Amino acid sequence: MILTCIYQVSISVLQQRRADMASLRALLALCSLTVPLALCVPPIETQPEQVHLSYPGVPCSMVITWTTFNETESVVEYSAWGGKLFDQVAKGTSTVFEDGGSEKRKLYIHRVTLAGLRPGSVYAYHCGSEAGWSEVFYFTALNESTTWSPKFALFGDMGNENPQSLARLQKETQIGMYDAILHIGDFAYDMDELHSKANEDNGRIGDEFMRQIQSIAAYVPYMTCPGNHESAYNFSNYRNRFSMPGDTESLWYSWNIGPAHIVSFSTEVYFFLDYGVDLIFKQYEWLRKDLEEANRPENRRVRPWIITMGHRPMYCSNDDKDDCTQFESYIRVGRNDTKPPAPGLENLFYLYGVDLELWAHEHTYERLWPVYGYKVFNGSTEEPYVNPKAPVHIITGSAGCREKHDGFIPKPRDWSAFRSTDYGYTRMQVLNRTHLYLEQVSDDQYGKVIDSIWLVKEQHGVAAWL
């Protein structure tokens, strides 16, 4: 009897030891994935990443934005190129962004404004805090002269899978070819990545995309507008990650550079009505007032070019049945199924003499003849872009993403001047008050320029259409 009891106790102790050892092995395995075994605590993520610049619309300034995953101070140390390194310091603030996914991941978005910069001067900087610093970057403070000739790269629809144009853009930006980048909607594909509960990424693709574009956006202002791929959780990833001028969470804003007034707006207010039909009317009224101010004689005289950028185009000759393939496009003529009916933008832009309209969304490049109301208004047969009688539209959504190319209908529309399905992007230079140059780069053809035009206007404003 005693031997039986001893045997049973021994078996029980042995089983308990085996269970304890299994628990210990599991704990050690968990610890090995994070930090040294004796600690086994969550990692401290204070290292800055996803650094990018934007112009806040205030002369002689620049905003630097970055992300950490733990709370830290928001500090930028900077200096004029060639001077004592980091002899100036600016401090800012951070906000907590909680992604809408099931994990409710928290990101700390830091923003610091550098003020009192010397126009045209180069600055070296790094950002972070005593808990961790970024690598050293540099930028050129924007020239504030209205006779300056700024250069841009423009594109939309670039993801972190198949971003074919990215490498060329990285190199060209870092060698100083551009003064600013215009990204015309659709980032990462998608920043939230929530196509189903089984395919939920909780914002990590957004993090990776922002790391990828750091090699561009940490060197020149990276100016944006929202696209349809940013719609999740009421565009929260877009609204929180970028820092555009004004107080509309980057949804619509304007800024001045050289002889140009650039207006960025959201085409998506026409499509995601669950987030508020009133946004259509708020944006429209804001656009009307902004364009009215830009057209005051004293303003249009010094910044004659008005350029708009929005994601979904009014016109296109693609074969995918998007809004721009419809004769009565929402963006162009508005919506009649809202109360009251929502106004479109073509008449507004025409009445205020918008010169150039930049679009993306279609994963192609298309240049249009000057067009208004589906009619072509070329300057002349020989020189269609010299003193045209309507705005010029450029669609540049072929930077590269996982959705690959879009197709075209076989026969171009009368207003379609040039089309290409090559991956690539557009370059633009606003040379002076009368001349603006555009060219399309094909990344498929190793950087070859496959299309170019000079847009020449001796007169700006609605009077130019007469």
Automatic annotation (TrEMBL):
Residues 151-365 form the Calcineurin-like phosphoesterase domain. Residues 1-40 form the signal peptide. The keyword Electron transport does not apply. Keywords: Glycoprotein, Hydrolase, Signal. It catalyses: a phosphate monoester + H2O = an alcohol + phosphate. One of its GO terms (molecular function) is metal ion binding. Its EC number is 3.1.3.2. It comes from the Eukaryota. Residues 48-140 form the Purple acid phosphatase N-terminal domain. Pfam families: Metallophos, Metallophos_C, Pur_ac_phosph_N. Residues 390-452 form the Purple acid phosphatase C-terminal domain. Belongs to the metallophosphoesterase superfamily. Purple acid phosphatase family. This is Purple acid phosphatase.
